[in-house]
Amino acid sequence: MFHLTEDGRLINKSAQTSRRIGDFADKHDRRGYRSLFVDGKLQFAHRVIWKMAHGKDPIGYLDHINGDILDNRPENLREASHSQNMFNRKRSLHNTSGVKGICFRKDTGVWRAYISHEGKRLNLGQFNKIEDAEVVLNKAREKLHGKFARVA
To answer: Rounded to two decimals, what is the model's pTM?
Structure first.
């Protein structure tokens, strides 16, 4: 039904409703992901691309390795559990320290580092300098999150 471009976009091979042959088959949804209709069902483009590349539906979640949800090239997708997918999540828009997993404690004037693992938040300590907190946090990420660790 689709042709996959080098940059991970899907092109229609056949005419469907308002989309013509050669048109992009996918569009952005509210959350920024690309989606499209396949056999009358709305699907995420990255899940369709995974199935095209591997010949089977993904097990569980699909993680965009580089964090760019519009980069649906097969080499940028990997199967992941919910926890692993969350490890690779970007920094929250509400984060004021500029580093995921670090916050400033106004009451004590120190930087606090924390990490999530197996459904629990682990306190990694309090530091006078944010750089010291980052070093400890990055080591913990490598150990606990492995290849799904995201530094920024």
So the answer is: 0.74
